[in-house]
Amino acid sequence: MRFSSRPGGGAARGGARGGAASVRQRHGGKAAASPSAGRLGRRFGGAAGRQGGGAAGAGFTSSFITGSVSGCDMKRRAFPAVECSFTWFVLPFAVAPKAPEAGSRSPASGGQAWGRRDQLRSQEQFVFEKPSEVERRVPEAGVIDKPGVYEISTGPTGVSRIHLVPGFIDSEQADWMFEQLLQDIPWGQRTRTRQGKGSFEEPRLTSWYGELPYTYSRITMQPNSHWHPVLTMLKEHIEEFTGHTFNSLLCNLYRNEKDSVDWHSDDEPSLGKNPVIASLSFGATRTFEMRKKPSAEENGDYTYVEKLRIPLDHGTLLMMEGATQEDWQHRVPKEYHSRDARINLTFRIIYPEPDRVWK
């Protein structure tokens, strides 16, 4: 049998006969000449296809396949090709449509998938979550226990500086000076008043030396020009070491661990701007604590400010200079363990000031 690549020609008619025989052999019936095959033939099979019938459709199919396998051994592959062609056209009309596989993108499955997604979106609800606040940690207090000059802060008011000098007075001299001052200084306990909170006794003993009175926390200490010889010697020694001069001295006696002084700054007007304070300690070691004043945004809250702890041993000198009194506070807190007596001498300069009127 000869095959031609022209659709609808004689080879088409011969192919139709061979195809019909092949189909009858496989299905046990007549050649598959159906109207649908005729339509396919009329559409693609040329003049023979337009005359109608299954032969025309078969003619197109055999010609189409013959053209696709040109260049091969036609004699050996002719009939299998024709049989294959009929199977390709006939079976789709006889077999039920195959169900779409899972995950296929057919229109029906796609529509169902989009429908399910739309349904899920409609069921979703918007939930507002408040942004988490930034966690702030309370800073640990720093410890200064080595000799040296420390710039503890820098700000618009200037540099806050402290100078720690352990052993400024050697231990043997410090021992007899402590005993002498403990006995000879006229110690007294002052009563302080708080507006709307009544009065209370200060938890320590004090004494004042200087040509001018000194007022702090609504307490005025009267002038006392009778300096003890040991105090005069210590003042001159500190002035020589630091290069600063002093004209006044506040003495504090902490009798035991229960005595203390609360948070404060030595920033009274009579001390002037950026006063220099020289603090000399004798006796039991007590912890001198400092904390930085909070910024305006903190509204007076000291929780997150910088803090320092400075142990002041027997014979230790601590200098506070620059903006320390303006930017920092200090205290000597109560202790939970037994403590012996401690004397603290704070040398300073006092300037005359007009009489104060307390409100």
TrEMBL record:
<dbReference type="GO" id="GO:0006307">
    <property type="term" value="P:DNA alkylation repair"/>
</dbReference>
<dbReference type="InterPro" id="IPR005123">
    <property type="entry name" value="Oxoglu/Fe-dep_dioxygenase_dom"/>
</dbReference>
<dbReference type="GO" id="GO:0008198">
    <property type="term" value="F:ferrous iron binding"/>
</dbReference>
<comment type="similarity">
    <text>Belongs to the alkB family.</text>
</comment>
<keyword id="KW-0234">DNA repair</keyword>
<keyword id="KW-0558">Oxidation</keyword>
<keyword id="KW-0223">Dioxygenase</keyword>
<dbReference type="GO" id="GO:0005829">
    <property type="term" value="C:cytosol"/>
</dbReference>
<feature type="compositionally biased region" description="Gly residues">
    <location>
        <begin position="43"/>
        <end position="57"/>
    </location>
</feature>
<dbReference type="GO" id="GO:1990930">
    <property type="term" value="F:mRNA N1-methyladenosine dioxygenase activity"/>
</dbReference>
<keyword id="KW-0539">Nucleus</keyword>
<protein>
    <recommendedName>
        <fullName>Alpha-ketoglutarate-dependent dioxygenase alkB homolog 3</fullName>
        <ecNumber>1.14.11.33</ecNumber>
        <ecNumber>1.14.11.54</ecNumber>
    </recommendedName>
</protein>
<dbReference type="InterPro" id="IPR032854">
    <property type="entry name" value="ALKBH3"/>
</dbReference>
<comment type="subunit">
    <text>Interacts with the ASCC complex composed of ASCC1, ASCC2 and ASCC3. Interacts directly with ASCC3, and is thereby recruited to the ASCC complex. Interacts with OTUD4; the interaction is direct. Interacts with USP7 and USP9X.</text>
</comment>
<keyword id="KW-0379">Hydroxylation</keyword>
<dbReference type="GO" id="GO:0035516">
    <property type="term" value="F:broad specificity oxidative DNA demethylase activity"/>
</dbReference>
<keyword id="KW-0227">DNA damage</keyword>
<keyword id="KW-0479">Metal-binding</keyword>
<dbReference type="Pfam" id="PF13532">
    <property type="entry name" value="2OG-FeII_Oxy_2"/>
</dbReference>
<dbReference type="GO" id="GO:0005739">
    <property type="term" value="C:mitochondrion"/>
</dbReference>
<dbReference type="InterPro" id="IPR027450">
    <property type="entry name" value="AlkB-like"/>
</dbReference>
<keyword id="KW-0560">Oxidoreductase</keyword>
<feature type="compositionally biased region" description="Gly residues">
    <location>
        <begin position="7"/>
        <end position="18"/>
    </location>
</feature>
<dbReference type="GO" id="GO:2000766">
    <property type="term" value="P:negative regulation of cytoplasmic translation"/>
</dbReference>
<keyword id="KW-0408">Iron</keyword>
<dbReference type="GO" id="GO:0008283">
    <property type="term" value="P:cell population proliferation"/>
</dbReference>
<dbReference type="InterPro" id="IPR037151">
    <property type="entry name" value="AlkB-like_sf"/>
</dbReference>
<keyword id="KW-0963">Cytoplasm</keyword>
<feature type="domain" description="Fe2OG dioxygenase">
    <location>
        <begin position="245"/>
        <end position="351"/>
    </location>
</feature>
<feature type="region of interest" description="Disordered">
    <location>
        <begin position="1"/>
        <end position="57"/>
    </location>
</feature>
<keyword id="KW-0832">Ubl conjugation</keyword>
<dbReference type="GO" id="GO:0005654">
    <property type="term" value="C:nucleoplasm"/>
</dbReference>
<comment type="function">
    <text>Dioxygenase that mediates demethylation of DNA and RNA containing 1-methyladenosine (m1A). Repairs alkylated DNA containing 1-methyladenosine (m1A) and 3-methylcytosine (m3C) by oxidative demethylation. Has a strong preference for single-stranded DNA. Able to process alkylated m3C within double-stranded regions via its interaction with ASCC3, which promotes DNA unwinding to generate single-stranded substrate needed for ALKBH3. Can repair exocyclic 3,N4-ethenocytosine adducs in single-stranded DNA. Also acts on RNA.</text>
</comment>
